[in-house]
Amino acid sequence: MNEYPKNYPRNGFHICHGCGNMAPHHTQENVSDNGWAFDINSFGYYAGFTDPIGDPEQIVRLCHDCVLKFLETFPLLGVLIGNGCHSQYGPADTPCCRYAWKAEWIGPTAITSYASDDGTEWVAR
Q1: What is the DSSP letter of 110?
Q2: Which residues fall within 8 angstroms of residue 83, CB to CB, at 6 or more apart?
Q3: Which residues on adjacent β-strands are paired with residue 111?
Q4: Which one-letter DSSP state was computed for residue 91?
Q5: Which candidate, 6, 15, 66, 67, has a CA 20 to 30 Å from the CA of 77?
Q6: How much of the chain is helix, strand and coil, in % rounded to 5?
Q7: What phi and psi values does residue 75 have, to the nearest 5 degrees?
Q8: Could you give the CA distance from residue 45 to residue 77 in angstroms, rounded to a whole number?
Q9: Is it the case that residue 3 has pLDDT exceeding 70?
């Protein structure tokens, strides 16, 4: 059985820059669980949509649900990322989304399961 780490939850929450909700972060203090964090200024360039040349780093943090909304809006990006790109913590009967994977230990062997293409069930591969 998959168990939460002994110090879970370790770090707490921060505000998602997409929806404004509190997003948990348990394994890394400055980024949400299964979310995205990126420097918004790294998207800009001279004569681009934004031109942040020389601007200091400005980190944007998105929660898991906002990443899913982003990928629904831009489905080809989801194809590039592919399924099985983030782990799901703790015991779970169903995946949180089609991009999740989990590992369960049975004795000394780890069984890795991935979310089905529609994200409704676990599939061992």
Answers
A1: E
A2: 98, 99, 114, 115, 117
A3: 104
A4: -
A5: 15
A6: 15, 30, 55
A7: -65, -30
A8: 21
A9: no
Burial bucket for residue 116 (CB in 10 Å: 0-12, 13-18, 19+):
middle
How far is 65 from 56, CA to CA, in rounded Å?
27
Q: What is the pLDDT of residues 29-69, one digit of tens each?
A: 777 888 999 998 888 888 888 888 888 888 899 999 999 99
pLDDT of residue 109: 86
Is residue 32 within 8 A of residue 23, CB to CB? The reply is: yes
Exposure string (b/e) for 31-69, b if CB count within 10 Å is 16 or more? bbbbbbeeeebeeeeeeeeeebeeeeeeeebbbbbbbbe
As a residue count, the chain comes to 125
